[in-house]
Amino acid sequence: MSWYRNCVFFVKGLREFTRSGYESASRSFVPEDLEVDVTGRSFMITGANSGIGKAAAKEIAKRGGALHLVCRNEDRAEEAKGEIVAETGNQNIFVHILDMSNPKGIWEFAEKFKNEHKLNVLINNAGCMVNQRELTEDGLEKNFATNTLGTYILTTALLPLLEKGNDSRIIVVSSGGMLVQKLNTSDLQSGNITFDGTMVYAQNKRQQVVLTEQWAKAHQTIHFAAMHPGWADTPAVRSSMPDFYEKMKTKLRTEVQGADTVIWLAVSPAAIKQASGLFFQDRQPVPTHLPLASTHSSPEDEEKLLKALEELAQHFKPT
Ligand SMILES: NC(=O)c1ccc[n+]([C@@H]2O[C@H](COP(=O)([O-])OP(=O)(O)OC[C@H]3O[C@@H](n4cnc5c(N)ncnc54)[C@H](OP(=O)(O)O)[C@@H]3O)[C@@H](O)[C@H]2O)c1
Q1: Which superkingdom (predicted)?
Q2: b vs e for 52-67, b when ≥16 Cβ sit within 10 Å of the residue's Cβ?
Q3: What top-level class would CATH report for the domain 2-316?
Q4: pLDDT tens digits for 62-102?
Q5: What pLDDT digit, counting tens, does each position of 175-216 carry?
Q6: 50, 178, 179, 254: residue to mutate for ligand 1 pocket, most atoms within 8 A of CB
Q7: Residue 300 Cα, ligand 1 centroid: separation in angstroms?
Q8: Is 201 among the catalytic positions?
Q9: Domain boundaries defined on the chain
Q10: Ligand 1 pocket member 146 (CB < 6 A)
């Protein structure tokens, strides 16, 4: 089955996820969708110092939004801020230092942020593909801690703030890679498998899609969306998937092309006309399963994921 899924996924990827896939899809884009002024609205982007996150930040800054860049490295974050301010003239750019694999730190950050700022749009973009099994200081597997638990805690902690605002949106930068994985809640720390970073990452991205669907059902005043950027030429792809990068480098999307749907979901009035909780690619909701791939999960398994994340989140919540 995994051979079948991988083949179907790769063929689909060559057609749709590449730069030519973007160029073809973009012929149906409505340019006016992005002709908006978001002055007065506040956006948070995790992992905003690089790649898709930085490209999205710049486009939102050009449209007047206040931006909170949440990054783990101060120098890289300040450099990105300087670039965004210089290129857009927008002075409302704020840096926050946070490691998304540190659950206690996320709770503390969100608590402080809630008391000091307003927020209209949260973009969960930070992500990693660590190819060896590595544990955080808390004993959590690094990919899971960053991609799944970090996203879960930040979103959960900021929900009350977003619920206070109007036209609130939460975007999760997932990946089409999740199409090759069925939700698996039995080994969240990947301790019982032969470790394969690509598959662990894909599992985390599947978890993000399931979470987005569940959040949308539970929080109806907020518009939730997960998305796939396509295959874009970013530092993460170059460093975590060097073989893939070598083979595909002439076919990859630019960072701005990868960020296009994030920007559309974050600022356009068109995006919120779509139902909440869907998975988007090139400004369109798309299926979350490949045909005949047997990746559908049961409501019980989805419930199990939520329960396990909530237990972990509470375990790390400062008292
Ligand atoms: N590029 C693609 O083809 C592609 C395809 C599908 C999905 N995605 C998703 O797109 C998102 C952005 O990735 P990208 O391709 O733009 O790569 P990127 O340029 O390397 O950006 C990743 C960002 O996440 C940050 N990050 C990683 N771990 C973190 C942590 N523990 N705490 C805080 N920040 C952390 C990185 O910070 P540092 O700079 O400090 O490392 C960086 O800012 C990811 O979620 C990725 O899974 C990308």
Answers
A1: Eukaryota
A2: bbbbbbbbbbbbbbbb
A3: alpha beta
A4: 999 999 999 999 999 999 999 999 999 999 999 999 999 99
A5: 999 999 999 999 999 999 899 999 999 999 999 999 999 999
A6: 50
A7: 31
A8: yes
A9: 2-316
A10: yes
